[in-house]
């Protein structure tokens, strides 16, 4: 094979992309390349110079926009010091400072941070940490060797995170490789079980959980959940008070609580962490995606001092888990800069302002469309669920690709969106402007009106 050193055009890149790159969650037979060459703020620019609003923040991770000068500068400054230092018996100032800052901003009691590379890895760490804790704490309970998870949960794609996940279409192929999990009902506020209403939904779902805990708590090491919003399940929103109730019940039955804030953390729901909405502190908190502002791969798992203390001692008490690039100084520098930007630019105030505008526009421009069954929102996380029958909440045939078709049409209006089947997702960078929010909603309105 010979190398061609001339500058490739779009067609050449597209051919290489289709042949050499195996894309995540993508049927490569049908893949149509979209090649982004540069970006600025909330705007992506493809290789031909076409501009698109990044309507899902590069799949839920970009926080302050692309090419933010503060974050770029922090990475460049760190490059002039050292690019990588192992965390195996060694450290660096950037990751030390980041761990300290995370202890300050996370819910009370979470003071010890284990770094890894992505959200699934942070969950894997949390699961193993909880399991080992029960084996070696004072008064061990080694029989606690399983987990409770929600129906339709998504926690990543490693085997441990897949085991506690519950989206069958993603992971059913790997079922023989997974460990058993006790699954409780998904607290859905759109499709209630028979007899359940918005008024009694919280109590219903918590009573189902308590029945499970009462029966199985002696064998359960931890319950894991995505606080407030189940992401890949279709942005399913939990009823008010559910998260608080879960925390109370897990304490009552001596079960650890792992909060997976990989998708909902770092301002997405309007507070820095979703757990703050109901003033709860988990035993273990998993972070990723927005940790570095969406710039570099890094995740973190923070734990309480009680859990930390169970790992102090000789030999087997060590947490034998690690990642080569864990605590990478470049990623840590980006994360520290991102936290500074939250303060300097009053990012959460912009989230509040744009969230209200988004809520108003969705209600006035999309809610009455005959295919729009439900609109649900937490901060700058919004979902528009499309249905075949609005009154009876009957789903569309997934084979029609309705959600994908709407988002493809939205690109004609300068907005890039990626749906969850027939749930349209709006999750822009937190720096998004009012005009960009308006354009995002208008593009979806246009896309819906193009359906035949």
List keywords for this structure.
452 residues, alpha/beta, Aspartate Aminotransferase, domain 1, 4-stranded mixed β-sheet, 17 strands, 35% helix, Aspartate Aminotransferase, domain 2, globular, 2 domains, 7-stranded mixed β-sheet
Strands, count:
17
Largest sheet: number of strands, sense, barrel closure: 7 strands, mixed
- Determine and state the CATH class of the largest domain: Alpha Beta
**What is the averaged pLDDT score?**
96
Query: What name goes with the CATH superfamily of the largest domain?
Result: Type I PLP-dependent aspartate aminotransferase-like (Major domain)
- Which class best fits the helix and strand makeup? alpha/beta
List segments where confidence is low: pLDDT < 50 over at least 5 consecutive residues.
none
End-to-end span in angstroms?
47 Å
Question: How much strand content do the residues show?
Answer: 15-25%
Shape: globular
| Biggest sheet strand line-up | 4-12-11-10-7-5-6
Radius of gyration: 22 Å
Report the CATH topology name of the largest domain. Answer: Aspartate Aminotransferase, domain 2
Q: What's the number of structural domains?
A: 2
Corresponding CATH architecture of the largest domain: 3-Layer(aba) Sandwich
Fraction of residues in H or I helices = 25-40%
């Amino acid at each position: 094979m010979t190398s061609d050193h001339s500058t490739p055009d779009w067609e050449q890149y597209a051919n290489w992309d289709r042949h050499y790159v195996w894309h995540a969650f993508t049927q490569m037979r049908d893949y149509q390349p979209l090649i982004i060459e540069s970006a600025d703020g909330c705007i992506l620019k493809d290789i031909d110079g076409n501009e698109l609003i990044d309507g899902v923040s590069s799949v839920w991770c970009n926080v302050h926009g692309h090419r933010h000068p503060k974050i770029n500068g922090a990475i460049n400054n760190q490059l002039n010091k050292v690019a990588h230092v192992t965390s195996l018996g060694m450290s660096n100032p950037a990751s030390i400072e980041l761990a300290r800052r995370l202890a300050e901003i996370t819910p009370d009691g979470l003071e010890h941070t284990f770094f890894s590379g992505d959200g699934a890895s942070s969950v894997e760490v949390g699961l193993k940490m909880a399991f080992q804790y029960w084996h070696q704490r004072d008064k061990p309970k080694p029989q606690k060797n399983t987990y409770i998870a929600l129906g339709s949960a998504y926690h990543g794609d490693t085997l441990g995170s897949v085991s506690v996940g519950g989206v069958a279409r993603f992971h059913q192929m790997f079922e023989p490789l997974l460990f058993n999990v006790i699954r409780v009902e998904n607290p859905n506020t759109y499709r209630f079980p028979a007899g359940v209403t918005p008024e009694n939904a919280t109590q219903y779902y918590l009573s189902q959980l308590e029945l499970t805990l009462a029966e199985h708590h002696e064998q359960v090491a931890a319950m894991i959940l995505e606080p407030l919003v189940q992401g890949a399940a279709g942005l399913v929103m939990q009823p008010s008070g559910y998260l608080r109730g879960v925390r109370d019940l897990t304490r009552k039955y001596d079960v650890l609580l792992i909060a997976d804030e990989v998708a909902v953390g770092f301002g997405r729901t309007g507070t820095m962490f979703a757990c703050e909405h109901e003033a709860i502190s988990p035993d273990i908190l998993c972070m990723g995606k927005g940790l570095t502002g969406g710039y570099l791969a890094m995740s973190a798992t923070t734990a309480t001092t009680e859990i930390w203390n169970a790992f102090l001692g000789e030999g087997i008490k060590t947490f034998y888990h690690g990642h080569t690039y864990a605590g990478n100084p470049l990623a840590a520098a980006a994360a520290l800069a991102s936290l500074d930007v939250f303060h300097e630019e009053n990012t959460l105030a912009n989230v509040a302002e744009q969230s209200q505008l988004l809520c108003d526009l969705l209600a006035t421009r999309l809610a009455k469309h005959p295919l729009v069954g439900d609109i649900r929102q937490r901060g700058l996380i919004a979902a528009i669920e499309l249905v075949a029958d609005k009154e009876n909440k009957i789903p569309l045939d997934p084979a029609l690709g309705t959600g994908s078709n709407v988002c493809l049409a939205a690109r004609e209006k300068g907005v890039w969106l990626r749906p969850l089947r027939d749930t349209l997702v709006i999750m822009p960078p937190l720096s998004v402007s009012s005009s960009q929010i308006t354009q995002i909603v208008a593009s979806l309105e246009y896309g819906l009106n193009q359906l035949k």
